[in-house]
């Protein structure tokens, strides 16, 4: 099949390479000309604008957007709407909010353009092992695009999840679950590290061990084994954990649906906590424990002379 790919970051470039390897024709565009040249050298048709990309495709066209959610994706969809024709398809493979995808699908439908929301999981390993795809949108349109999805995915790694918004919704929940799993592993390793046995335990070997038939085996533990092999005590990194939005949306939707998700919610808040040193909330708790129970408090080190704390 023929496909346009907009966005050649780590995901988009690797997806393009996998599609080319599967025999598809891919026209590519990115604001980074070097990224376009790299994909062109791999066999793609390099384009210097969205207009050029659309012209490089024969109708009915399919254009995959692999950009950050929010303005980059929204603005690109708006530009493509003015360039594409009835019968064409836009595939949003970024982590957009599912309600936004539904609204965009309704808007594009007025011009006869379909929007497919494709949740993509696999990260930088997707080129080699394939991408897990959760796809929502018009069933007939998604069926027409299946050769693309089946090339990108490993065996049994593609699922049509339902109408518009379903792909992004399922991927959002997937990422919320990921938050909880990562938090559990992180807390477990910290508990061991701070115990009397921690200094004698090889975390790389332990990660490998737990993947040999244990009930907590997973790909994440395989990645933990790699991480500990490179940095046995993770001394080279800071414990600051970003969130990219999907965890927040998962918790917000759970509130709207009155569905209890305490593990997912607490894992999100733990990420917020990771960005604070000497959190004020801890000061409040320590002060109250001292007031009601006389529990000792740890004095903060005095600031250097002339320094301000604010």
Structure in words:
By secondary structure, this protein is of the alpha/beta class. 50% of the residues lie in helices and 12% in strands. The chain has 14 helices and 8 strands. It has an 8-stranded mixed β-sheet with strand order 3-2-1-4-5-6-7-8, sandwiched between helices. β1, α1 and β2 form a beta-alpha-beta unit. α9 packs across α12, α9 crosses α13 and α10 runs antiparallel to α11. The longest helix is centred in the middle third of the chain and has 28 residues. It is globular, with a radius of gyration of 24 Å. 33% of the residues are buried.
Q: Helicity range of the residues?
A: 40-55%
Query: How would a crystallographer describe the biggest sheet?
Result: 8 strands, mixed
Computed CA radius of gyration, to the nearest angstrom? 24 Å
Order of helices and strands: EHEHEHEHEHEHEHHEHHHHHH
pLDDT averaged over residues: 93
Going across the biggest sheet, name each strand in turn.
3-2-1-4-5-6-7-8
Please mark out the parts with pLDDT under 50 across 5 or more consecutive residues, or reply none: none
Q: What percent of residues are in strands?
A: 5-15%
User: Helical region count?
Assistant: 14
> What is the 3D form?
globular
Distance between the termini: 59 Å
Structural class: alpha/beta
Which helices and strands occur, and which strands form pairs?
Elements: E1 2-6, H1 10-21, E2 25-29, H2 33-41, E3 45-46, H3 50-55, E4 62-65, H4 71-83, E5 89-92, H5 98-109, E6 114-121, H6 126-129, E7 132-136, H7 139-144, H8 146-152, E8 158-162, H9 166-193, H10 203-210, H11 219-230, H12 246-257, H13 262-273, H14 280-293
Parallel strand pairs: 1-2, 1-4, 2-3, 4-5, 5-6, 7-8
Antiparallel strand pairs: 6-7
């Amino acid at each position: 099949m023929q496909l346009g790919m907009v966005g050649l970051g780590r995901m988009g470039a690797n997806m393009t390479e996998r599609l080319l390897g599967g025999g598809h024709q891919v026209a590519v565009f990115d604001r980074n000309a070097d990224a376009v040249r790299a994909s062109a050298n791999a066999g793609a048709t390099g384009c210097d604008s969205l207009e050029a990309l659309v012209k490089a495709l024969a109708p009915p066209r399919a254009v995959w957007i692999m950009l950050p959610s929010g303005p980059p994706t929204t603005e690109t969809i708006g530009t493509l709407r003015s360039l594409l024709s009835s019968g064409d398809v836009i595939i949003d493979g970024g982590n957009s909010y599912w309600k936004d995808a539904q609204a965009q699908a309704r808007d594009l439908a007025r011009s006869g353009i379909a929007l497919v929301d494709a949740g993509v999981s696999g990260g930088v390993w997707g080129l080699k092992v394939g991408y897990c795809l959760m796809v929502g949108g018009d069933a007939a349109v998604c069926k027409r695009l299946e050769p693309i999805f089946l090339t990108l995915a490993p065996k049994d790694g593609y699922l049509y999840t339902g109408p518009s918004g379903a792909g992004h919704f399922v991927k959002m929940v997937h990422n919320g679950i990921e938050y909880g799993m990562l938090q559990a592993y992180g807390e477990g390793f910290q508990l061991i590290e701070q115990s009397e046995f921690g200094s004698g335990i090889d975390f790389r070997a332990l990660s490998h061990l737990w993947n040999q038939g244990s009930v907590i085996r997973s790909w994440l533990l395989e990645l933990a084994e790699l991480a500990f092999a490179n940095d046995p005590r993770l001394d080279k990194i800071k414990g600051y954990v970003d969130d990219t939005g999907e965890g927040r949306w998962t918790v917000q939707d759970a509130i709207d649906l009155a569905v209890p998700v305490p593990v997912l919610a607490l894992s999100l808040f733990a990420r917020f906590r990771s960005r604070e040193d000497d959190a004020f909330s801890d000061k409040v708790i320590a002060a109250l424990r001292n007031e009601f129970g006389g529990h000792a408090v740890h004095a903060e080190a005095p600031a250097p002379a002339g320094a301000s704390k604010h």
